[in-house]
Each structure stands twice: as C-alpha cells, then as structure tokens.
C-alpha cells in the first residue's frame, strides 16, 4: 500500500483469529493505521488481498459495514454535534444497538454528553469513538490507538470493555505503540516496522528467551557523577544504561551472570551498596530493539529522571 511514491505497507501478511484480541504494535509511521484503514475498506491496496470476515472490504462493503465497528484515530463526528446526540444517531443506524445510556455511563461520557464534538478533550473524543465503534454490536471491531489521550482511569475502562467484548465473542484488532497495552490485552501481537511485519506471537512467545534482559539497580546512596557512562564502559557496547533517579538505574543488556557480576563489582569500586539488583523479564521493548536496533517506545514514566517535566506520551493522540 503506497501513498504516491511513499510505500507505507509492504508485503504485510497476517491473520486474525475470531474472538481474539490482536494488537498491531509499531512505532509512529510504521503503517499501523494504513493497515487498519485498508481492512476497513477506506484504502485500496495497489497489490495484495484483504479479507475481513471472509469479505472483500471494497467489493462487499455494503455487506461488511453493518458487521464491523471502527474507532478511528481522530475525527469521525461532525464538529458541532453533541457527544450523546452523535452516539444516539449512530445507534439509530443499527438494527440491534447496545443501550447508549449504558455506554455513556461505562465510558464516563455523561459529563460531556451535551458538549459539541469539537470542544471535547482528546480523551473524551476517544471514549466517544469507542462507544460509536461498539454501539452496533459488531462481530469485529477495529480500534486505532484506543487509549491515546486517555487518563489512567479511562484507559483501564477501555481495556476492560475490550476484554468484555472479546468475552462476548467479538474479534478485536487494535493498533498501539504502547507495549504495556499490547502485552496486557492482546492474545496475539504483530510487531510492524517500516511497513513490514518483523515478529508475531503471543506476548509470552515474543518475550520468552532471547539474549537480553533488564537489570534494575538501586543503591544505598547517590551515584557519583558520570555513573551511567562509567557503568556502560564496564559492561561493554551491548549494554544500555539509564539513570532513573539519583539512586536507581535500568540496565538493558545480556541476560547472564557475568553482567550481574560486573554490575556488582562496579558498585564495589564506586563505593555504593546495591539494595536491589534484579534481573527482569525480557520486554517487548527488548524484542523490538533486538530486531531493529532501535527503540519502540520510551516508557517515560519509568525512565525519565524524577525531576523531568510530566510527559504526554499517553496523552496526545498521534
Ligand atoms: N495520506 C497519506 N499521504 C502520504 N503519506 C501518508 C499518508 N498516510 C500515511 N502516510 C505515510 O505512511 C506511513 C505509514 O503511516 P501510518 O499512519 O499508517 O503509520 P502508523 O503506524 O499508524 O503511525 P502512527 O502511530 O504515527 O499513527 C508514514 O510514513 C506516513 O507518513
């Protein structure tokens, strides 16, 4: 799938099992939205085949649309329409809609029900978008970055609702660049980068084994100046060291006893006493880093020093 000369998705091949949650995970610009929009019938691929519920999203559009729900990354409503009016209108287009009052209540839309769409916050637009995607009791729902712009409470509610619809047999396909979201929700994850599929599997399959791990080091008193660089020199070029605050560091590196031994020796040489020294499980971030040499996402809440200004990684729709 290309936009002019720009190839956005190239040779991507993936299948989604009915009744499961599938996450398409990748960094900005990886081709996630393009993939979804192609499945939804909004984009026509130059090559390849797409079948959704056994139907061609272009040729069989009229038959497919009543069976799928779509949560767009942005837009999808008239700017002046009130949130609840929009939801009621969408419900009226379906034969057996869900109870809109229940959706308004569950998604915390009551307070902004009379607010025109253009004045809703990013998170409120997302919640309304999710309600619109679910109101027609779809067999399959596509959700593009479902929790972008949501606060933690709304994020949890969204996860719960997606899990509930899966329990009712609905198939969910979501895009995200949040590893924790994919890891928490998805039965199967497809990691894409630069328009190509680079890994697929269950969260456990993807994070099992591998050569790297995350070591968490917390010491009894502040690290000396230049500690991350010094520790990186000690551990070698395969290792990445990030200082979280004055007494803790995260180290991504080879998952072996030698690395732990070197960290311990470095502490001794620099007169700090490890209070926590743990070898953590490999994360999806590690998987992505191993496969591409680049980072998928910086988990800002974990990795930024405590003094850093609040980030909006989970707060700005992309
Ligand atoms: N309408 C368009 N015209 C030209 N290029 C486009 C268009 N839409 C997307 N692209 C390009 O195609 C590539 C894939 O974009 P896409 O939106 O599918 O990625 P994404 O993985 O969903 O990214 P994000 O997480 O930022 O939403 C990007 O390089 C993007 O700039």
How would you describe what is shown here?
The protein has 318 residues and is an alpha/beta fold. The protein has 2 domains: 2-206, P-loop containing nucleotide triphosphate hydrolases (Rossmann fold, 3-Layer(aba) Sandwich); 211-281, Alpha-L RNA-binding motif (Alpha-Beta Plaits, 2-Layer Sandwich). 33% of the residues lie in helices and 20% in strands. It has 12 helices and 12 strands. It has helices spanning 32-40, 61-64, 83-92, 100-106, 122-134, 152-167, 179-185, 203-207, 227-235, 257-269, 284-292, 300-303, and strands spanning 2-3, 6-7, 21-25, 68-71, 140-144, 171-176, 188-193, 196-201, 212-219, 240-245, 248-254, 274-280. A 6-stranded mixed beta sheet has the order 4-5-6-3-7-8, with helices on both faces. The chain has a 4-stranded antiparallel beta sheet with strand order 10-11-9-12, covered by helices on one side. A two-stranded antiparallel sheet has the order 1-2. Helix 3 packs parallel to helix 5. The chain is elongated, with a radius of gyration of 22 Å. The chain starts with a strand and ends in a 15-residue tail after the last helix. Residues 298-318 have low confidence and may be disordered. Bound molecules: adenosine-5'-triphosphate. The site of adenosine-5'-triphosphate has 13 residues, from helix 1.
